[in-house]
Amino acid sequence: MQDDNQNEIAVAEEKQQLSIFKSVYYQMNAKPDSMSKAYSRKIIIDKDDIVELNNRVCEKINLNYEDDGFITSVTVDLKDRRVIVFKCWEEFIQHSWVETSSIMSISIQWNFNIRIPGYDLPQRHNLVVKLTNGLRPEEMLNLIFSGKIEDFDEVELNTFPVVARVDFIQALLGEELLNIVGEWVRGRKQNTASKNVVLLLMKKYRKRIAQYFEYVSFIMTFILTVGINTYYIRGLNIDKLSDLSMTEFNNLLILLATSVMVIFLLKKIFEKLAENVYDKLSEYGRVFIFNITRGDKNLQDKINSSDNNSGKMILVKFVFSLIFNIGCGIITSLIC
Fold first, then answer.
1. pTM higher than 0.85
2. Which residues, 6+ apart, have CB-to-CB distance to 118 below 8 Å?
3. How far apart are CA 258 and CA 264, in angstroms?
4. Which of 86, 98, 147, 336 has the smallest number of CB atoms closer than 10 Å to its CB?
5. Residue 189 and residue 46: Cα distance in Å, rounded?
6. Strands 83-86 and 67-78, how do they pair?
7. Under DSSP, is residue 192 helix (H, G, I), strand (E, B) or coil?
8. Between the CA of residue 305 and those of 41, 198, 207, 299, 301, what are the distances in Å?
9. Is the pLDDT of residue 296 over 80?
10. 3-state class of 333 per DSSP?
């Protein structure tokens, strides 16, 4: 009887220890959820802006939650493919930023442990803010399906300059941190560089504009060539090909061969022209968000100068194309 009681006590103690172990295990290994959000506002970011973002995040954590471990790290990717890693916030603050290369992206990561209701032990949380010159569509899909934003590089301009991702145990905290990033984005200086409204409209429909330069000009050239050949043949005053003399026949062959060659060469020229216009329109009005290194400031000036030159060139080509097409139509109508 005594052995049975001892066995029951041993089993009870084992169950109690197992229960304690499970409790500790789940407290230490609670699986976090993740939320991500992208911000499309065209902004300019300098070092003070990043300092302000860090202050906002730190204030939120320190104000509402007991801190049980906190570290901020920053990774900066430069255009010359150098990567500067700051393992703590103090290193980032003390950096002089005299690099002549421009910044392609900055990743700021806050790792912190906090105590939240329902958990006896501190839980690890993570907030990552990626500052870039935009995300490609395939990168956005990757963000949507996997939530990863740490490894994006070589991004396209003007799309989503700021992306945030938070790993959290408590949903309210995750939403609050993303809201802080959103408020910070809305408070940044917006890129207000003046751009030509007509060129921005052409940029929106750049595919159609490029097709106009390639196909409409080619069609008008083809019509003009047919008109010239018809005018020449009509001037021979013959009813049948058999009435042609050998000299006239040779001249006709030369004219036709020349016409084919001219059309072929002009088609290639129009294709290159269309590609050039499409590329220039794609680049027009791009925004470079960083204003931190010396390279950033130089690139800002270069972009503005490039936009002015590209805008003038595109408008000149468009006007010339209109004159060329209208001229082809007028000449064809006169000779036919």
1. no
2. none
3. 10
4. 98
5. 10
6. antiparallel
7. coil
8. 23, 18, 24, 10, 6
9. yes
10. helix
